[in-house]
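User: I'm putting together a small comparison set for a docking exercise, and I want a reference complex before I start. The sequence is below, and the ligand is phosphoenolpyruvate. Could you produce the 3D structure with the ligand included, as structure tokens?
Assistant: Of course. I'll restate your input first, then give the structure tokens for the complex.
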Amino acid sequence: MSFTLHGISVSSGIAIGHAHLISHTSLEVAHYMLPKQFIAEEIARFEAALLATRDEFTSLRSNRPTHAAAEFDAFLELHQMILDDPLLSVAPREMIANEQCNAEWALKTQTETLVAQFDEFEDAYLRERKTDVTQVAERLLKKLLGQPGHHPLSARHDVEMILVAHDLSPADLIQFKPHQYAAFITDVGGATSHTAIVARSLNTPCVVGLHHARELIREDDVLILDGDQGVLIVNPDKPILAEYKLRQSAWELERKKLKRLRTARANTLDGALIELHANIEKPEDIAEVKENGATGIGLFRSEFLFLNRDSLPNEEEQFEAYRTVAVGMEGQPVTIRTFDLGADKQIKGVERVANNPALGLRAIRLCLAEPQLFRTQLRALLRATHYGNVKILIPMLSSVSELNQTLQFIAATKQNLDEEGIPYDREVKIGGMIEIPAAALALKVFAKKLDFLSIGTNDLIQYTLAIDRTDEEVAHLYDPLHPAVLHLLSHIIGTANKLGVPISVCGEMAGELAYTRLLLGFGLREFSMFSAQVPNIKQRVLTTNLPKIVLLTQRIRRADDPMKIRELLERLNA
Ligand code: PEP
Ligand code: MG
């Protein structure tokens, strides 16, 4: 049966492929049979995942934060015991061998048996431990999903696969990079969540907030995903399929054409040069940065180096990552943000449980609370400044005391490097992200102490409008054109320009065509976005005449009726 679902478009493009269902929360996993010759390999895959999960527990115990409560150890011990229970560690192997099924399916079946046993306990405390069983099984499952086996579809290279999940974390998504899914769809999530950001950076169509997609779609269903319209068509009829194949080719052709702009300078019609930089998550991303003609890196989200691993990267490993980017960009600016961990990006060993993670110990707050972690990163960053045009960016500043503490950390790290005779750029520029309304309103005091500023519109909007950017239930309220947001943006850009402090936007608004002229009109001259969007934005810049847009942007800035703002914006973009 054919049906259509509507969600929130987060990464554009059209994908046509077969559904591959996964879920991390309910252990609903793909079930397929394997030919005999793959059975030994499948058992080995299960054993490797088991070993990796055991190692993960060992490393969690040895990297346990000093201030962690004693319950942390007890909790880990319990989870290790559950992992070693024969029903989780031995029975799945036997099931793979006897039933010739995939490891995920065997794990799911055995987990259900174990959970049923816990359900029968009289004691309420023991009964509740079934949650721990599920958590351990999910940990193991994640390891399996990171190393997929011989799925009958993935073995066929003529078949594109679309990943269907209830929810995906940014860490999950980045882990799927090598598997080259044609698209991602999820039931939950918001347009500026980090999961959405990673999908864009993988240049893969993605629609989130589809509510019941995971329940309604069956493994192997044929799907058409229109990432621009946020539309998903399940099991389409032949004429629809043919129509979308045509649209897909046209879309790809358009992208190819735009790439011809790669080496063109991004000048407006009246001759102003606009810097178009790229946002990256990993050193490998610089190939795409160059391919799309970005002239620098405006935001390296360094915390992605931490995700999906069992131990924290040490100074050498971080230094190598930063240096690789600095050298690879051949003198072009590389802005590396210090870790923005916490909220939706947790790392092993420093996990936090908070009622309101987005308002909790996140980004610079977490770094200041974990001085060793921060010092290690600053040493690696400063050392890398010697090899290119590296700048350091501090996320989520809200008070000047945080900034002062951060600057003291940097000064102390420089002094240590001096004592050790290690070279670094003495003029390294330190910038701050303006993404909390408090910092935007008290901008001058931050601008005085910093060399440059970068507006994180994703968080600025989240915190101004009190809307969780990861929650699809309030996604419709997430509005970059809210008069309060426009007021803050024009205030930040105008003040920074008046003070002569370089200002850029590195949030998702910088990569949205609808807002390019508006931001230019506010006085912005530097944008940083996901690489694949640089050619599109460049084309918009090339067709913009700055003196001609000033009046309209001023009217938009002064308007307070949402309909009027939209109407004026349409005229600006016409
Ligand atoms: C932002 O908040 O706009 C930003 C660029 O940072 P992140 O999306 O990583 O929070
Ligand atoms: Mg942010």
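The pocket of magnesium ion (ligand 2) is lined by residues 395, 435, 456, 458-459 (CB under 6 Å). The mean pLDDT is 89.
User: Thanks, that's exactly what I needed.
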